[in-house]
Amino acid sequence: MTQLPAPLELAGWTHVYSGKVRDLYVPEGRTRDDSPVLLVVASNRVSAFDHVLDPEIPGKGALLTGLSNWWFDRIEMPNHLVPAGTEGVPAVPAEVADRAVVGRRLEMHPIECVVRGALTGSGYAEYARTGAVCGIELPEGIADGDLLAEPIYTPAYKAPLGEHDENITFERSVELVGAEAATALRDASLTIFTAARELAAERGVILADTKFEFGIDPVTGELVLADEVLTSDSSRYWDGEVYAAGGPGRLASFDKQIVRDWLAANWDKQGVPPVLPAEIVERTRERYQELLDRLTA
User: Fold this and answer.
1) Residue (of 205, 204, 225, 207) closest to 215 by Cα position
2) Most C-beta atoms within 10 A of its C-beta, which of 80, 85, 160, 177?
3) pTM across the whole model
4) What is the pLDDT of residues 273-284, one digit of tens each?
5) How far apart are CA 145 and CA 228, in angstroms?
């Protein structure tokens, strides 16, 4: 897919932005700068290696929205969701009701709040080079995928559009947002992650790592959990039983890794990526569905 599809026309709402995966709308008569709320529509698009791919994953938007909302209901801190029926806020259109939410407008912190309960991916690569992750020194001998004794907070700076996010130290986050805000972000992230990891473990699933985003309500001044939360797109989950058994498949995650692996084996990352085979699309959809079923059953 070389360009994004035309956005849906939704009654009561005006389209203002489309990212790789989500589309944003404001109430008719408002602009992105003055609207107190946003309609966030999760598409079925799937991206990898900075490309939006063809075809879409059927039902992906609804699966991720359902999982995110399930977690929001269980996290004990204010979140960005605006209740249905709020005065002056148009209803979520029926055609996107299962994959859209209305969120209040926030002053977003420029920090991705990453928490790692295991070491893998870019975190493990940094540890292998330096013995630390985001300035946190770790014991020697940690292998790829090992669980950490305690989760660690490894923030990233959300770079401007078109640039790559940058892993940073906690001290750098203090420079960016101030000591009080940086501490609040770290403490909230670790608290939420710890509770979520315990709940997932009860269902036989390991929450390996995740990222949170927070903003400040311009009216109340409170810290608010925003964006999506603990979904397959923002988190790495492993099957607890498979992980315990060991072997090469123990780190298979409940997300689009199937897509990444297929592309890595079938594309040199030059030009337009190939169309995903139907089997890869279906296996990816099933993986998203399996996580939702496991956690919410």
Assistant:
1) 225
2) 80
3) 0.94
4) 999 999 999 999
5) 24
